[in-house]
DNA sequence: CGGGCACTTGAAGATAATCAATGCCGGTGG
DNA sequence: CCACCGGCATTGATTATCTTCAAGTGCCCG
Protein backbone atom coordinates (compact mmCIF):
# COMPACT_ATOMS: atom_id res chain seq x y z
CA UNK A 1 0.00 0.00 0.00
CA UNK A 2 1.03 3.56 -0.37
CA UNK A 3 3.16 5.37 2.06
CA UNK A 4 0.16 6.21 4.12
CA UNK A 5 -3.51 5.72 4.19
CA UNK A 6 -4.37 6.95 0.80
CA UNK A 7 -6.76 5.33 -1.50
CA UNK A 8 -8.43 5.01 -4.75
CA UNK A 9 -11.68 3.51 -5.71
CA UNK A 10 -11.37 2.28 -9.18
CA UNK A 11 -9.15 3.24 -11.94
CA UNK A 12 -8.93 2.80 -15.59
CA UNK A 13 -5.72 0.89 -15.33
CA UNK A 14 -3.70 -0.64 -12.54
CA UNK A 15 -4.58 -0.78 -8.90
CA UNK A 16 -5.02 2.05 -6.46
CA UNK A 17 -1.62 1.36 -5.06
CA UNK A 18 -0.03 2.47 -8.24
CA UNK A 19 -2.19 5.48 -8.84
CA UNK A 20 -0.25 8.65 -9.29
CA UNK A 21 -3.06 10.71 -7.87
CA UNK A 22 -3.24 9.28 -4.42
CA UNK A 23 -2.43 12.64 -2.94
CA UNK A 24 -5.60 14.28 -4.12
CA UNK A 25 -7.85 11.33 -4.66
CA UNK A 26 -11.16 10.74 -3.03
CA UNK A 27 -9.72 7.99 -0.98
CA UNK A 28 -7.13 10.08 0.75
CA UNK A 29 -7.35 9.29 4.41
CA UNK A 30 -8.67 5.81 4.01
CA UNK A 31 -7.40 2.97 6.06
CA UNK A 32 -5.62 0.53 3.78
CA UNK A 33 -7.89 -2.22 4.90
CA UNK A 34 -10.91 -0.52 3.49
CA UNK A 35 -9.20 0.22 0.29
CA UNK A 36 -8.49 -3.37 -0.34
CA UNK A 37 -12.06 -4.29 0.31
CA UNK A 38 -13.44 -1.63 -1.91
CA UNK A 39 -11.16 -2.06 -4.82
CA UNK A 40 -12.77 -5.24 -6.09
CA UNK A 41 -16.04 -3.34 -6.27
CA UNK A 42 -14.90 -1.04 -8.92
CA UNK A 43 -14.80 -1.69 -12.59
CA UNK A 44 -12.50 -0.49 -15.23
CA UNK A 45 -13.35 2.84 -16.67
CA UNK A 46 -12.54 3.81 -20.17
CA UNK A 47 -10.54 6.74 -21.45
CA UNK A 48 -12.47 9.80 -22.50
CA UNK A 49 -11.45 11.48 -25.73
CA UNK A 50 -11.60 15.24 -25.84
CA UNK A 51 -15.17 16.43 -26.22
CA UNK A 52 -16.73 13.23 -24.94
CA UNK A 53 -19.53 13.46 -22.40
CA UNK A 54 -19.03 11.46 -19.23
CA UNK A 55 -22.69 11.90 -18.40
CA UNK A 56 -25.58 14.11 -19.38
CA UNK A 57 -27.73 16.35 -17.29
CA UNK A 58 -30.98 14.53 -16.50
CA UNK A 59 -29.62 11.06 -17.12
CA UNK A 60 -30.09 8.51 -14.45
CA UNK A 61 -27.18 8.31 -12.05
CA UNK A 62 -24.94 5.46 -13.13
CA UNK A 63 -21.87 6.08 -11.08
CA UNK A 64 -19.66 8.53 -9.30
CA UNK A 65 -16.40 9.18 -11.08
CA UNK A 66 -12.96 10.13 -10.00
CA UNK A 67 -10.90 11.93 -12.56
CA UNK A 68 -7.58 10.26 -13.02
CA UNK A 69 -6.03 12.37 -15.74
CA UNK A 70 -7.05 15.14 -18.08
CA UNK A 71 -9.67 17.79 -17.40
CA UNK A 72 -13.45 18.05 -17.54
CA UNK A 73 -16.05 20.71 -17.25
CA UNK A 74 -19.46 20.39 -15.65
CA UNK A 75 -22.18 22.50 -17.16
CA UNK A 76 -25.90 23.07 -17.09
CA UNK A 77 -28.05 23.59 -20.14
CA UNK A 78 -31.07 25.80 -19.98
CA UNK A 79 -34.25 25.49 -21.97
CA UNK A 80 -33.28 28.40 -24.17
CA UNK A 81 -30.07 26.77 -25.23
CA UNK A 82 -27.80 28.60 -22.89
CA UNK A 83 -24.93 26.70 -21.38
CA UNK A 84 -23.35 27.53 -18.08
CA UNK A 85 -20.12 25.96 -16.90
CA UNK A 86 -20.38 25.35 -13.18
CA UNK A 87 -17.12 23.67 -12.48
CA UNK A 88 -13.80 22.63 -13.91
CA UNK A 89 -12.34 19.35 -12.74
CA UNK A 90 -8.70 18.43 -12.54
CA UNK A 91 -7.26 15.03 -11.65
CA UNK A 92 -8.42 13.77 -8.27
CA UNK A 93 -11.79 15.46 -8.52
CA UNK A 94 -14.93 13.48 -7.87
CA UNK A 95 -17.82 13.91 -10.27
CA UNK A 96 -21.49 13.15 -10.06
CA UNK A 97 -22.28 14.15 -6.49
CA UNK A 98 -24.96 16.53 -7.63
CA UNK A 99 -26.79 13.50 -8.95
CA UNK A 100 -27.29 12.05 -5.49
CA UNK A 101 -30.18 14.44 -4.93
CA UNK A 102 -32.67 12.63 -7.10
CA UNK A 103 -30.70 9.89 -8.79
CA UNK A 104 -30.28 11.94 -11.92
CA UNK A 105 -27.26 13.96 -12.83
CA UNK A 106 -27.96 17.63 -12.31
CA UNK A 107 -25.29 18.67 -14.77
CA UNK A 108 -23.42 17.34 -17.77
CA UNK A 109 -19.73 16.51 -17.65
CA UNK A 110 -17.54 16.76 -20.70
CA UNK A 111 -13.85 16.14 -21.27
CA UNK A 112 -12.11 19.31 -22.38
CA UNK A 113 -8.94 17.33 -23.05
CA UNK A 114 -8.41 13.61 -23.35
CA UNK A 115 -8.99 12.16 -19.90
CA UNK A 116 -9.45 8.99 -17.97
CA UNK A 117 -11.66 8.29 -14.99
CA UNK A 118 -12.17 5.78 -12.22
CA UNK A 119 -15.66 4.72 -11.41
CA UNK A 120 -17.84 3.77 -8.48
CA UNK A 121 -21.06 2.29 -9.87
CA UNK A 122 -24.21 3.65 -8.33
CA UNK A 123 -25.49 0.29 -7.17
CA UNK A 124 -22.41 0.13 -4.99
CA UNK A 125 -22.65 3.61 -3.59
CA UNK A 126 -25.10 2.87 -0.87
CA UNK A 127 -23.59 -0.41 0.20
CA UNK A 128 -20.10 0.99 0.01
CA UNK A 129 -21.13 3.84 2.17
CA UNK A 130 -22.60 1.44 4.63
CA UNK A 131 -19.58 -0.78 4.74
CA UNK A 132 -16.84 1.79 4.70
CA UNK A 133 -17.01 4.42 7.40
CA UNK A 134 -14.24 6.47 5.92
CA UNK A 135 -15.91 6.54 2.54
CA UNK A 136 -19.08 7.54 4.26
CA UNK A 137 -17.44 10.51 5.89
CA UNK A 138 -15.64 11.34 2.73
CA UNK A 139 -18.71 11.42 0.57
CA UNK A 140 -20.64 13.39 3.12
CA UNK A 141 -17.81 15.84 3.38
CA UNK A 142 -17.56 16.20 -0.35
CA UNK A 143 -21.27 16.73 -0.68
CA UNK A 144 -21.17 19.31 2.08
CA UNK A 145 -18.22 21.01 0.47
CA UNK A 146 -20.04 20.97 -2.82
CA UNK A 147 -22.87 22.88 -1.18
CA UNK A 148 -20.54 25.33 0.53
CA UNK A 149 -18.72 25.90 -2.74
CA UNK A 150 -21.97 26.78 -4.39
CA UNK A 151 -22.46 29.55 -1.87
CA UNK A 152 -19.02 30.99 -2.37
CA UNK A 153 -19.52 30.84 -6.06
CA UNK A 154 -22.78 32.70 -5.80
CA UNK A 155 -20.93 35.53 -4.10
CA UNK A 156 -18.14 35.51 -6.62
CA UNK A 157 -20.57 35.67 -9.52
CA UNK A 158 -22.85 38.28 -8.10
CA UNK A 159 -20.82 40.52 -5.84
CA UNK A 160 -17.53 40.64 -7.66
CA UNK A 161 -16.62 42.72 -10.66
CA UNK A 162 -15.34 41.13 -13.84
CA UNK A 163 -11.73 41.80 -12.95
CA UNK A 164 -12.07 40.21 -9.57
CA UNK A 165 -13.71 37.17 -11.04
CA UNK A 166 -10.92 36.58 -13.48
CA UNK A 167 -8.29 37.13 -10.79
CA UNK A 168 -10.18 34.66 -8.66
CA UNK A 169 -10.24 32.16 -11.47
CA UNK A 170 -6.52 32.46 -12.07
CA UNK A 171 -5.74 32.01 -8.39
CA UNK A 172 -8.07 29.05 -8.25
CA UNK A 173 -6.34 27.39 -11.16
CA UNK A 174 -2.97 28.22 -9.72
CA UNK A 175 -3.84 26.55 -6.45
CA UNK A 176 -5.24 23.54 -8.20
CA UNK A 177 -2.05 23.05 -10.14
CA UNK A 178 0.04 23.75 -7.09
CA UNK A 179 -1.77 21.07 -5.12
CA UNK A 180 -1.09 18.65 -7.89
CA UNK A 181 2.62 19.24 -7.92
CA UNK A 182 2.74 21.55 -10.90
CA UNK A 183 3.95 25.09 -10.97
CA UNK A 184 1.39 27.47 -9.51
CA UNK A 185 2.97 30.34 -11.43
CA UNK A 186 2.93 29.01 -14.93
CA UNK A 187 0.50 26.64 -16.49
CA UNK A 188 -1.63 25.89 -19.46
CA UNK A 189 -5.33 26.41 -19.24
CA UNK A 190 -7.10 23.40 -20.70
CA UNK A 191 -10.30 25.28 -21.41
CA UNK A 192 -11.31 27.78 -24.06
CA UNK A 193 -12.07 31.44 -23.46
CA UNK A 194 -15.65 30.53 -24.11
CA UNK A 195 -15.58 28.07 -21.24
CA UNK A 196 -13.90 30.56 -18.94
CA UNK A 197 -16.41 33.25 -19.74
CA UNK A 198 -19.28 30.87 -19.15
CA UNK A 199 -17.77 29.77 -15.86
CA UNK A 200 -17.38 33.37 -14.75
CA UNK A 201 -20.67 34.47 -16.23
CA UNK A 202 -19.10 37.07 -18.44
CA UNK A 203 -19.09 37.71 -22.16
CA UNK A 204 -16.16 36.20 -24.02
CA UNK A 205 -15.15 39.68 -25.08
CA UNK A 206 -14.99 40.80 -21.50
CA UNK A 207 -12.73 37.93 -20.53
CA UNK A 208 -10.51 38.67 -23.45
CA UNK A 209 -10.27 42.32 -22.47
CA UNK A 210 -9.47 41.41 -18.89
CA UNK A 211 -6.66 39.11 -19.93
CA UNK A 212 -5.21 41.89 -22.00
CA UNK A 213 -5.71 44.35 -19.18
CA UNK A 214 -3.98 42.12 -16.66
CA UNK A 215 -1.09 41.70 -19.03
CA UNK A 216 -0.77 45.43 -19.60
CA UNK A 217 -0.83 45.93 -15.86
CA UNK A 218 2.06 43.54 -15.50
CA UNK A 219 0.08 41.03 -13.49
CA UNK A 220 0.35 38.16 -15.91
CA UNK A 221 1.86 37.08 -19.15
CA UNK A 222 -0.56 35.33 -21.39
CA UNK A 223 -0.27 33.74 -24.78
CA UNK A 224 -3.33 31.91 -25.88
CA UNK A 225 -3.84 29.21 -23.30
CA UNK A 226 -0.53 29.47 -21.54
CA UNK A 227 -0.43 31.76 -18.55
CA UNK A 228 2.30 32.98 -16.26
CA UNK A 229 1.36 34.76 -13.07
CA UNK A 230 3.79 37.60 -12.43
CA UNK A 231 2.20 39.24 -9.43
CA UNK A 232 0.37 36.68 -7.38
CA UNK A 233 0.08 39.04 -4.44
CA UNK A 234 -1.86 41.58 -6.42
CA UNK A 235 -3.95 38.92 -8.10
CA UNK A 236 -4.80 37.45 -4.76
CA UNK A 237 -5.75 40.87 -3.44
CA UNK A 238 -8.03 41.43 -6.39
CA UNK A 239 -9.59 38.03 -6.02
CA UNK A 240 -10.51 38.88 -2.46
CA UNK A 241 -12.23 42.10 -3.19
CA UNK A 242 -9.77 44.71 -4.38
CA UNK A 243 -10.02 46.37 -7.73
CA UNK A 244 -7.31 47.00 -10.17
CA UNK A 245 -6.22 50.60 -10.15
CA UNK A 246 -6.96 51.89 -13.63
CA UNK A 247 -3.59 51.43 -15.18
CA UNK A 248 -2.54 50.83 -18.80
CA UNK B 1 -37.67 24.48 -3.89
CA UNK B 2 -35.31 21.96 -2.48
CA UNK B 3 -36.92 21.60 0.84
CA UNK B 4 -39.86 19.49 -0.13
CA UNK B 5 -38.22 16.61 1.57
CA UNK B 6 -37.16 17.10 5.00
CA UNK B 7 -36.64 15.16 7.99
CA UNK B 8 -37.36 15.24 11.46
CA UNK B 9 -35.12 13.92 13.99
CA UNK B 10 -35.68 15.73 17.11
CA UNK B 11 -38.18 18.28 17.98
CA UNK B 12 -38.55 20.98 20.49
CA UNK B 13 -41.64 19.47 21.98
CA UNK B 14 -43.46 16.21 21.72
CA UNK B 15 -42.49 13.13 19.75
CA UNK B 16 -42.19 12.74 16.01
CA UNK B 17 -45.54 11.00 16.00
CA UNK B 18 -47.21 14.18 17.00
CA UNK B 19 -45.23 16.50 14.80
CA UNK B 20 -47.35 18.58 12.54
CA UNK B 21 -44.67 18.65 9.91
CA UNK B 22 -44.39 14.99 9.16
CA UNK B 23 -45.51 15.67 5.65
CA UNK B 24 -42.49 17.69 4.77
CA UNK B 25 -40.08 16.50 7.38
CA UNK B 26 -36.80 14.80 6.72
CA UNK B 27 -38.22 11.59 8.04
CA UNK B 28 -40.83 11.29 5.36
CA UNK B 29 -40.56 7.84 3.96
CA UNK B 30 -38.88 6.38 6.96
CA UNK B 31 -39.96 3.08 8.29
CA UNK B 32 -41.58 3.71 11.65
CA UNK B 33 -39.17 1.33 13.21
CA UNK B 34 -36.21 3.52 12.38
CA UNK B 35 -37.89 6.63 13.58
CA UNK B 36 -38.51 5.03 16.91
CA UNK B 37 -34.90 4.05 17.21
CA UNK B 38 -33.64 7.43 16.23
CA UNK B 39 -35.90 9.49 18.35
CA UNK B 40 -34.13 8.78 21.62
CA UNK B 41 -30.99 10.16 20.04
CA UNK B 42 -32.31 13.61 19.69
CA UNK B 43 -32.41 16.25 22.32
CA UNK B 44 -34.80 19.02 22.91
CA UNK B 45 -34.12 22.14 20.95
CA UNK B 46 -35.10 25.53 22.16
CA UNK B 47 -37.25 28.16 20.49
CA UNK B 48 -35.47 30.82 18.48
CA UNK B 49 -36.62 34.40 18.94
CA UNK B 50 -36.65 36.58 15.88
CA UNK B 51 -33.16 37.74 15.00
CA UNK B 52 -31.42 34.95 16.88
CA UNK B 53 -28.59 33.10 15.17
CA UNK B 54 -28.95 29.34 15.05
CA UNK B 55 -25.30 29.05 14.12
CA UNK B 56 -22.55 31.22 12.76
CA UNK B 57 -20.46 30.82 9.67
CA UNK B 58 -17.12 29.31 10.66
CA UNK B 59 -18.33 27.81 13.91
CA UNK B 60 -17.67 24.19 14.52
CA UNK B 61 -20.53 21.97 13.41
CA UNK B 62 -22.64 21.17 16.43
CA UNK B 63 -25.69 19.68 14.83
CA UNK B 64 -27.99 19.52 11.87
CA UNK B 65 -31.29 21.23 12.44
CA UNK B 66 -34.76 20.76 11.14
CA UNK B 67 -36.96 23.78 11.16
CA UNK B 68 -40.21 23.06 12.90
CA UNK B 69 -41.90 26.41 12.75
CA UNK B 70 -41.05 29.93 11.74
CA UNK B 71 -38.55 30.98 9.08
CA UNK B 72 -34.80 31.40 8.84
CA UNK B 73 -32.33 32.77 6.38
CA UNK B 74 -28.88 31.41 5.65
CA UNK B 75 -26.28 33.94 4.67
CA UNK B 76 -22.60 34.34 4.05
CA UNK B 77 -20.53 37.21 5.27
CA UNK B 78 -17.56 38.35 3.27
CA UNK B 79 -14.37 39.90 4.54
CA UNK B 80 -15.46 43.33 3.40
CA UNK B 81 -18.61 43.24 5.41
CA UNK B 82 -20.96 42.26 2.65
CA UNK B 83 -23.75 39.90 3.46
CA UNK B 84 -25.37 37.56 0.99
CA UNK B 85 -28.50 35.60 1.73
CA UNK B 86 -28.16 32.20 0.13
CA UNK B 87 -31.34 30.54 1.22
CA UNK B 88 -34.61 30.99 3.00
CA UNK B 89 -35.90 28.13 5.09
CA UNK B 90 -39.48 27.31 5.86
CA UNK B 91 -40.74 24.60 8.22
CA UNK B 92 -39.46 21.18 7.31
CA UNK B 93 -36.18 22.46 5.95
CA UNK B 94 -32.95 20.94 7.13
CA UNK B 95 -30.11 23.25 8.02
CA UNK B 96 -26.40 22.80 8.41
CA UNK B 97 -25.59 20.44 5.57
CA UNK B 98 -23.03 22.83 4.16
CA UNK B 99 -21.11 22.31 7.36
CA UNK B 100 -20.46 18.67 6.60
CA UNK B 101 -17.66 19.65 4.26
CA UNK B 102 -15.14 20.55 6.90
CA UNK B 103 -17.03 20.33 10.17
CA UNK B 104 -17.61 24.05 10.25
CA UNK B 105 -20.74 25.79 9.17
CA UNK B 106 -20.20 27.45 5.82
CA UNK B 107 -22.96 29.96 6.40
CA UNK B 108 -24.81 31.61 9.24
CA UNK B 109 -28.46 30.89 9.97
CA UNK B 110 -30.72 33.45 11.54
CA UNK B 111 -34.37 33.43 12.51
CA UNK B 112 -36.29 36.04 10.56
CA UNK B 113 -39.35 35.36 12.66
CA UNK B 114 -39.71 33.49 15.95
CA UNK B 115 -39.00 29.86 15.16
CA UNK B 116 -38.36 26.49 16.68
CA UNK B 117 -36.07 23.74 15.52
CA UNK B 118 -35.38 20.06 16.02
CA UNK B 119 -31.81 18.96 16.32
CA UNK B 120 -29.53 16.07 15.39
CA UNK B 121 -26.28 16.54 17.32
CA UNK B 122 -23.18 16.15 15.22
CA UNK B 123 -21.74 13.34 17.30
CA UNK B 124 -24.77 11.35 16.29
CA UNK B 125 -24.67 12.14 12.63
CA UNK B 126 -22.15 9.57 11.66
CA UNK B 127 -23.51 6.78 13.79
CA UNK B 128 -27.07 7.58 12.84
CA UNK B 129 -26.12 7.42 9.24
CA UNK B 130 -24.50 4.09 9.82
CA UNK B 131 -27.43 2.64 11.67
CA UNK B 132 -30.27 4.00 9.62
CA UNK B 133 -30.16 3.23 5.92
CA UNK B 134 -33.05 5.50 5.14
CA UNK B 135 -31.46 8.40 6.93
CA UNK B 136 -28.28 7.67 5.04
CA UNK B 137 -29.99 7.92 1.71
CA UNK B 138 -31.92 10.90 2.83
CA UNK B 139 -28.92 12.89 3.93
CA UNK B 140 -27.00 11.99 0.82
CA UNK B 141 -29.92 13.04 -1.29
CA UNK B 142 -30.27 16.30 0.53
CA UNK B 143 -26.60 17.02 0.19
CA UNK B 144 -26.73 16.20 -3.49
CA UNK B 145 -29.79 18.36 -3.93
CA UNK B 146 -28.06 21.12 -2.08
CA UNK B 147 -25.28 20.98 -4.64
CA UNK B 148 -27.67 20.83 -7.58
CA UNK B 149 -29.61 23.76 -6.19
CA UNK B 150 -26.45 25.78 -6.05
CA UNK B 151 -26.03 25.27 -9.77
CA UNK B 152 -29.54 26.33 -10.61
CA UNK B 153 -29.13 29.32 -8.40
CA UNK B 154 -25.95 30.31 -10.15
CA UNK B 155 -27.88 30.41 -13.40
CA UNK B 156 -30.74 32.34 -11.92
CA UNK B 157 -28.42 34.94 -10.48
CA UNK B 158 -26.21 35.36 -13.50
CA UNK B 159 -28.28 34.65 -16.56
CA UNK B 160 -31.62 36.06 -15.57
CA UNK B 161 -32.74 39.65 -15.56
CA UNK B 162 -33.99 41.33 -12.43
CA UNK B 163 -37.64 40.78 -13.35
CA UNK B 164 -37.13 37.11 -13.94
CA UNK B 165 -35.36 36.73 -10.63
CA UNK B 166 -38.18 38.29 -8.70
CA UNK B 167 -40.78 36.27 -10.57
CA UNK B 168 -38.73 33.21 -9.77
CA UNK B 169 -38.59 34.14 -6.14
CA UNK B 170 -42.33 34.66 -5.92
CA UNK B 171 -43.03 31.33 -7.58
CA UNK B 172 -40.56 29.65 -5.29
CA UNK B 173 -42.26 31.07 -2.24
CA UNK B 174 -45.64 30.21 -3.64
CA UNK B 175 -44.63 26.59 -4.12
CA UNK B 176 -43.12 26.43 -0.67
CA UNK B 177 -46.32 27.62 0.90
CA UNK B 178 -48.40 25.40 -1.32
CA UNK B 179 -46.46 22.35 -0.27
CA UNK B 180 -47.04 23.25 3.31
CA UNK B 181 -50.76 23.46 2.96
CA UNK B 182 -51.06 27.22 2.73
CA UNK B 183 -52.44 29.20 -0.12
CA UNK B 184 -49.98 29.44 -2.99
CA UNK B 185 -51.71 32.58 -4.23
CA UNK B 186 -51.67 34.70 -1.17
CA UNK B 187 -49.14 34.78 1.59
CA UNK B 188 -47.02 36.90 3.83
CA UNK B 189 -43.35 37.16 3.14
CA UNK B 190 -41.46 36.75 6.38
CA UNK B 191 -38.36 38.52 5.12
CA UNK B 192 -37.52 42.15 4.50
CA UNK B 193 -36.93 43.74 1.10
CA UNK B 194 -33.32 43.93 2.13
CA UNK B 195 -33.22 40.16 2.55
CA UNK B 196 -34.97 39.59 -0.74
CA UNK B 197 -32.62 41.87 -2.60
CA UNK B 198 -29.63 40.17 -1.06
CA UNK B 199 -31.02 36.77 -1.95
CA UNK B 200 -31.58 37.84 -5.53
CA UNK B 201 -28.38 39.84 -5.72
CA UNK B 202 -30.12 43.06 -6.60
CA UNK B 203 -30.21 46.50 -5.05
CA UNK B 204 -33.09 47.05 -2.64
CA UNK B 205 -34.29 49.83 -4.87
CA UNK B 206 -34.45 47.50 -7.83
CA UNK B 207 -36.53 44.98 -5.91
CA UNK B 208 -38.85 47.73 -4.82
CA UNK B 209 -39.26 48.95 -8.37
CA UNK B 210 -39.95 45.44 -9.61
CA UNK B 211 -42.65 44.90 -7.03
CA UNK B 212 -44.27 48.10 -8.13
CA UNK B 213 -43.83 47.16 -11.76
CA UNK B 214 -45.42 43.76 -11.26
CA UNK B 215 -48.31 45.36 -9.50
CA UNK B 216 -48.82 47.90 -12.26
CA UNK B 217 -48.71 45.09 -14.78
CA UNK B 218 -51.49 43.34 -12.90
CA UNK B 219 -49.34 40.36 -12.01
CA UNK B 220 -49.54 40.76 -8.28
CA UNK B 221 -51.04 42.77 -5.51
CA UNK B 222 -48.59 43.74 -2.88
CA UNK B 223 -48.85 45.64 0.33
CA UNK B 224 -45.70 45.64 2.37
CA UNK B 225 -45.03 42.01 3.14
CA UNK B 226 -48.32 40.58 2.05
CA UNK B 227 -48.49 39.39 -1.52
CA UNK B 228 -51.23 38.08 -3.73
CA UNK B 229 -50.35 36.45 -7.02
CA UNK B 230 -52.89 37.44 -9.64
CA UNK B 231 -51.35 35.92 -12.74
CA UNK B 232 -49.39 32.86 -11.80
CA UNK B 233 -49.19 31.78 -15.41
CA UNK B 234 -47.38 34.87 -16.48
CA UNK B 235 -45.18 34.84 -13.40
CA UNK B 236 -44.29 31.27 -14.05
CA UNK B 237 -43.50 32.04 -17.64
CA UNK B 238 -41.18 34.81 -16.57
CA UNK B 239 -39.53 32.67 -13.94
CA UNK B 240 -39.22 29.66 -16.16
CA UNK B 241 -38.06 31.69 -19.07
CA UNK B 242 -34.78 30.24 -18.06
CA UNK B 243 -35.80 26.95 -16.64
CA UNK B 244 -33.42 24.11 -16.92
CA UNK B 245 -33.58 22.11 -20.07
CA UNK B 246 -35.58 18.94 -19.83
CA UNK B 247 -32.46 16.92 -20.46
CA UNK B 248 -33.31 13.62 -22.03
C1' DC C 1 -47.37 62.11 18.79
C1' DG C 2 -42.68 61.87 17.29
C1' DG C 3 -38.77 59.32 15.80
C1' DG C 4 -36.72 55.78 13.30
C1' DC C 5 -36.66 52.48 10.01
C1' DA C 6 -38.26 50.15 5.98
C1' DC C 7 -39.70 51.06 1.84
C1' DT C 8 -40.55 53.71 -2.39
C1' DT C 9 -39.49 56.86 -6.10
C1' DG C 10 -36.56 59.65 -9.16
C1' DA C 11 -32.31 60.91 -11.77
C1' DA C 12 -27.61 60.21 -13.06
C1' DG C 13 -23.89 57.17 -13.83
C1' DA C 14 -21.15 52.89 -14.47
C1' DT C 15 -20.21 48.22 -15.73
C1' DA C 16 -20.42 44.78 -18.74
C1' DA C 17 -23.25 43.08 -22.85
C1' DT C 18 -23.98 43.35 -27.52
C1' DC C 19 -22.91 44.32 -32.20
C1' DA C 20 -19.47 44.38 -35.66
C1' DA C 21 -15.02 43.51 -37.59
C1' DT C 22 -10.40 42.03 -37.78
C1' DG C 23 -6.39 39.06 -36.42
C1' DC C 24 -4.17 34.84 -35.56
C1' DC C 25 -3.17 29.99 -35.49
C1' DG C 26 -3.53 25.36 -36.89
C1' DG C 27 -4.94 22.23 -40.18
C1' DT C 28 -5.68 20.79 -45.03
C1' DG C 29 -5.02 20.32 -49.64
C1' DG C 30 -3.19 21.87 -53.91
C1' DC D 1 5.89 24.71 -49.28
C1' DC D 2 2.49 27.85 -49.43
C1' DA D 3 -2.41 29.46 -49.72
C1' DC D 4 -6.67 29.11 -47.99
C1' DC D 5 -10.20 27.91 -44.64
C1' DG D 6 -12.49 27.75 -40.09
C1' DG D 7 -12.55 28.31 -35.33
C1' DC D 8 -10.96 30.89 -31.59
C1' DA D 9 -9.50 35.14 -29.86
C1' DT D 10 -8.93 40.05 -29.70
C1' DT D 11 -10.29 44.85 -30.31
C1' DG D 12 -13.43 48.80 -30.93
C1' DA D 13 -17.94 51.34 -30.55
C1' DT D 14 -22.36 51.64 -28.80
C1' DT D 15 -26.07 50.47 -25.72
C1' DA D 16 -28.89 48.52 -21.93
C1' DT D 17 -29.53 47.23 -17.38
C1' DC D 18 -28.95 47.85 -12.98
C1' DT D 19 -26.49 50.42 -9.35
C1' DT D 20 -25.71 54.39 -6.86
C1' DC D 21 -26.91 58.66 -4.99
C1' DA D 22 -30.52 61.46 -3.23
C1' DA D 23 -34.87 62.51 -1.47
C1' DG D 24 -39.28 61.58 0.16
C1' DT D 25 -43.22 58.71 2.24
C1' DG D 26 -45.53 56.05 5.54
C1' DC D 27 -45.86 52.63 8.99
C1' DC D 28 -44.86 50.83 13.48
C1' DC D 29 -43.44 51.33 18.08
C1' DG D 30 -42.20 53.61 21.90
Q: What report would you give on this structure?
A:
- The structure is a homodimer of 248-residue chains.
- Chain A has 248 residues and is of the alpha+beta class.
- The first copy, chain A, contains seven helices and nine strands; from the N terminus they run H-E-E-E-E-E-E-H-H-H-E-H-H-E-E-H.
- In chain A, strands 1, 2, 3, 4, 5 and 6 form a six-stranded antiparallel beta sheet that branches. In chain A, strands 7-9-8 form a three-stranded antiparallel beta sheet.
- In chain A, strand 8 and strand 9 form a beta hairpin.
- Chains A and B meet through helix 2 and helix 3 of A and helix 2 and helix 3 of B.
- The first copy, chain A, binds a DNA duplex (30 and 30 nucleotides) through helix 6.
Strand content of chain A: 15-25%
Instruction: Report the radius of gyration of chain A as a whole number of Å.
Output: 19 Å
The oligomeric state of the chains shown is homodimer
SSE string of chain A: HEEEEEEHHHEHHEEH
Topology, element by element:
The structure is a homodimer of 248-residue chains.
Chain A: H1 32-38, E1 47-48, E2 53-55, E3 63-77, E4 83-89, E5 94-95, E6 108-121, H2 122-131, H3 133-159, H4 162-179, E7 186-188, H5 193-199, H6 204-216, E8 220-223, E9 226-229, H7 232-239
Antiparallel strand pairs in A: 1-6, 2-6, 3-4, 3-5, 3-6, 7-9, 8-9
The first copy, chain A, binds a DNA duplex (30 and 30 nucleotides) through helix 6.
Brief characterization of the structure:
Chain A has seven helices and nine strands, in the order H-E-E-E-E-E-E-H-H-H-E-H-H-E-E-H. Chain A is α+β, with helices and mostly antiparallel strands and 248 residues long. At the A-B interface, helix 2 and helix 3 of A face helix 2 and helix 3 of B.
